[in-house]
């Protein structure tokens, strides 16, 4: 549940702290007092978009903090473990810090997180609903049925993805095959041109080495001659010194033996240098290729790389040959792709059919549950139905091949049809409340916020909606922003939102009402600006009935 929200420098709010309790919390106030600012602020704390209009005039920084407490088994806590975010006793503190220059920082339990993660976690904690939100869009109807039935759709989604990819592969190959004459002409030319040059594996690197060798041939030959002469002279001198040491070795064996051993090693190493230089001299004395020939060969190889925009011309040659072979046998490949598509289509249809059957059972159960909710909401004559029809094959998707839409008949003898075309505004408000009341058992969101859900209703209907919100709040936290005295009278906790106008500024404030103040606020909502004794009596009666 939402425990508290702290707001600094958001629109008309200077510095505000609100502590919430369980049950039904209502927020009332005059139109324009700033009730919507609270929703904007909460949206910021839960990863919503930061806009310049939300900054309090003259402020350079703004901040919103939302604190939640959750049961130990809530799925959000598992995700915190994945992201290594510290948690203490199931309490989560979302903090959004804004700078006037547009910079924004998101924190959860004082650890910085991404706005995307903040938004995703926030959607698991709070649902905010306007008057008809979700009901007018048939796309939301299928999600409502599937949520209520706790339907597993992963197999259908995976099967659809494989089937959809197979369709794309077939379409792409058919498109390429239609252009195959032009493509085959290009590939044949490319293969012929590359094979004419006949590149060898690693040839470019070998040519680079050879070019360096040829470019410096004279310097290398001169150095070889110098080294040969020096080594011959050194070897001759070293042999003489070695013999001399051996002649006196017996005289000073302890001192001379290490020197003789070093001399032996020097003789071996000098000999290795002499032999290596002979081999190198043999290579150098051979006739090297002309430098121009090497440069031309390198140019030919690199021109192919540039022309065909590849890093390895032999790999390009191989892939071109494979593609040409496919195009030469295009009809065979299309046949194979079609066979694969048929297999995947069948697999998709099988799991989608199973999902459809489960969905129809869930839809029937949802119909029964919502019909039970309608009489308490003064819709006892309405008939709610979930209409499920097959989609055209072109509209199949990861949710299966069903079109799901909510239908209603508001009165006996009146036509049945989609909600958007049949139900009035007040009826839509009550239907949304009924739907949320039914879905609450299958949802993990602990806090529901309704923003003027009573629009289009009044009197006994609004009172019935207040009663249903009260019942709903027994299983989860419910916050209701309302202009209805009937709904306000049902609140366990009541806040009034009001503006204070000073000489140079206007600020929005929120005050928790005690029982006596609640009577006055409900009376104001009933009577208007001038509160009468009759309005106070009516308020007392409403609040008494609500309790």
Description:
There is one protein chain. The chain folds into 2 domains: 2-125 and 445-546, 3-Layer(aba) Sandwich (Rossmann fold); 145-425, no CATH class. The chain has helices at 35-45, 75-82, 115-123, 138-148, 154-178, 180-197, 203-215, 217-248, 253-285, 291-307, 313-328, 330-373, 419-422, 425-439, 459-472, 485-488, 515-527, 533-546, and strands at residues 2-10, 13-19, 24-28, 61-69, 91-99, 104-108, 111-113, 126-129, 383-390, 402-409, 417-418, 447-451, 477-481, 493-501, 506-512. Helix 5 runs antiparallel to helix 12. The mean pLDDT is 85. The strands form 3 sheets. The chain has a 6-stranded antiparallel beta sheet. A 6-stranded mixed beta sheet has the order 8-12-13-3-14-15. A 3-stranded antiparallel beta sheet has the order 9-10-11. 27% of the residues are buried. It is an alpha/beta fold and 547 residues long. The protein is elongated and about 135 Å long. The protein contains 18 helices and 15 strands.
